[in-house]
Amino acid sequence: MSKGLGLSTNYWAKCCAILENMEMVVIRDWKQVWVETDSKVMLAFVSNKVPWQLRKRWELCKRKLDLCLISHTWKEANFAADIAAKHGTSLIMGTMEVYVGRPPWLYKLKNPDYVYFRFC
């Protein structure tokens, strides 16, 4: 999913991205979800410190899920999210694009058998 948010902060955009995707999960009646993000925004969702404007929507989503895992990944390894964010900046405010499967503009996917970063 990509959506044009207009002028907003990076923090707000990431909170909206997580929440709106969670709402799509609920609409599709999926009961288990694993959210992987490269952002510290995950701490807001894990500790229930979501911005007040989004809190009620988040609580409704949580009630409808049997399992919700939220984990962190390194930004350098999160290609899909980075490309989706760049695509979203080109959308008009309020425009939303939802895809089933790989979006046509997502040209790079993670390969689980490849090491993308190393610590020395």
From TrEMBL:
Domain of life of the organism encoding this protein: Eukaryota
Transmembrane segments: none
A Pfam family this chain is assigned to: RVT_3
Occurrences of domain RNase H type-1 (ranges): 8-87
GO MF terms, alphabetically ordered: nucleic acid binding; RNA-DNA hybrid ribonuclease activity
Gene3D superfamilies: Ribonuclease H-like superfamily/Ribonuclease H (3.30.420.10)
InterPro entries listed in its UniProt record: RNase_H-like, RNase_H-like_dom_plant, RNaseH-like_sf, RNaseH_domain, RNaseH_sf
Protein name: RNase H type-1 domain-containing protein
Source species of the chain: Coptis chinensis
